[in-house]
């Protein structure tokens, strides 16, 4: 009898549930506003205004693709894009290789594992500004590494990446890797710990060497971990800004400019908003190009699973 | 003979013969120690430089320990170093950072935990869509949203103030924190939630009396994540505040990279260390929780 009344009552309680959900909706207003106004609205606003000739203040004087033409004609932008490309490729490859190698070393059941892990990860707690300033000091040609090695008697030793336009980006890379590899190592280590011990036993029985096991068996198994790491590194590379400002200030000359810095310089210093909007829209495009294949992989993977 | 059989039986299953100085081990530990030196070098050099006087630094060898330890650079960095016309040192930036940090952490975590709770237990039409936008938004370069937020803050009368920066940190911390809380609340058994509903508890009652007490570990993780993230922020600080309200990172950069005056490397390094001290303390004090925080941030659900 009670069962019947229950089922009978159910439709009646529906309006009440709607009312209860109203509370959830009210509580979600900050989230909805952030998503719609800032993320969707803000991005759309910037894209739209990148087609205007805004200078000091945004205004709707449409100039078509003018800003983009000027952007791609600008040496500074080309340098920025090239730098980001070089930094990005090197950083991506090296972070993955170093991160995985360190994780593999730590996974060999060694002593003092947690001490090593703390050492590799602590730079990640520091800001890019601190990282940049610390490495600026170490790479200082008059007092830093170069002068120390020269002091040891190797007079012709030259290691001065920050003051050479051709190598400054590698100077940034040294600092960037120092800061970021610990995180990837941690993620890789978590991935390695998730691999069944029996796999190792099986490869040992088959007489496959340790390094070959990593390359042929373990890495393919860790594909999702690598994809996560890849996305994290890529997202970090696009945002590269603080490190450059702190370590080199974009110099020498324009040699270490990056797109994020270009955008901010044009928006807030050169008072050429339109250029800034166009450049940031290009940054958005590059992220979309990276994100779509990833979303496709994730989505496709889930469908299969 | 018996010896051979036992060793055959033990085979690869037995405890690994421990040779402390096998070639593989030497290579392994050698590599790890070499790499550790690369990671420790900057911290070591910063500490050593900050404890030296300028004459000793000019003499060279940044790697050597100070012949004469002096804390003068630290005092100068804290209370005398100049940025532009202000010569009251990093203490001002520290104060600003604290005043930015506390409300930002409280506000962002409060909002994100409610979001996560609503998203996992009180799904409504469109809630998943907003959540997806939020997560995608985490990947949009900040640069595309910088100027619209300037307009927004101007309209609200918050541009240049600490309140404005708090709002910005709340907005940009939301995706990752909401994800964190949503995943955590989703892992709490639904029966508990249903039982509370049957007992007549409403949205806020369940949130305050059941969800928060159960979610304390994830709150700690979120706090660690936010404190280090907000403390280390440079971009938002430099854009949305004015010189009087600059956070510590921005002030540090202005002190060290200022072109006027003689470069005092020891003061610069002391200032850098002072700025890095808060996240470092949190890192070493929280240990495993820090790792859990960044892992939670890394794993997309």
Task: Describe the 3D structure.
The complex is a heterodimer of chains A (305) and B (301). With 305 residues, chain A is an all-alpha fold. Chain A has 2 domains: 1-49, no CATH class; 67-304, Orthogonal Bundle (MetI-like fold). Chain A is built from 14 helices and no strands. The longest helix of chain A has 32 residues, at 75-106. Chain A is globular, with a radius of gyration of 26 Å. The two termini of chain A are 43 Å apart. Residues 1-13 of chain A have low confidence and may be disordered. Chain B has 15 helices and no strands. Chain B has helices at 2-10, 23-50, 54-58, 72-79, 91-121, 127-137, 143-156, 162-187, 190-198, 203-214, 216-232, 235-240, 248-256, 265-286, 288-298. Residues 4-8 of chain B have low confidence and may be disordered. Chain B folds into 2 domains: 13-70, no CATH class; 91-298, MetI-like fold. Chain B is mostly helical. Classes of the chains: A mainly alpha (305), B mainly alpha (301). Chains A and B meet through helix 1, helix 2, helix 4, helix 5 and helix 6 of A and helix 2, helix 5, helix 6, helix 7 and helix 8 of B.
Helical run tally of chain B:
15
Structural category of chain B is mainly alpha
Q: Which chains share the greatest interface? A: A-B, 97 and 89 residues
Task: Summarize the helix and strand pattern of chain B as letters.
Answer: HHHHHHHHHHHHHHH
Order of helices and strands of chain A: HHHHHHHHHHHHHH
Q: With helices defined by DSSP (H or I, 4 residues minimum), what is the helix count of chain A?
A: 14
The CATH class assignment of the largest domain in chain A is Mainly Alpha
Tell me the count of domains of chain A. 2
Low-confidence blocks of residues of chain B: 4-8
User: What's the CATH class of the largest domain in chain B, please?
Assistant: Mainly Alpha
Q: Give Rg of chain B in angstroms.
A: 26 Å
Q: What is the oligomer described by this structure? A: heterodimer
Shape verdict of chain A? globular
Share of helical residues of chain B: over 70%
CATH architecture of the largest domain in chain A: Orthogonal Bundle
Task: Return the CATH architecture of the largest domain in chain B.
Answer: Orthogonal Bundle
Rg of chain A, rounded, reads 26 Å
CATH topology of the largest domain in chain B: MetI-like fold
Average pLDDT level of chain B:
86
Mind describing the biggest β-sheet of chain A? none
For CATH, the homologous superfamily of the largest domain in chain B is named as MetI-like
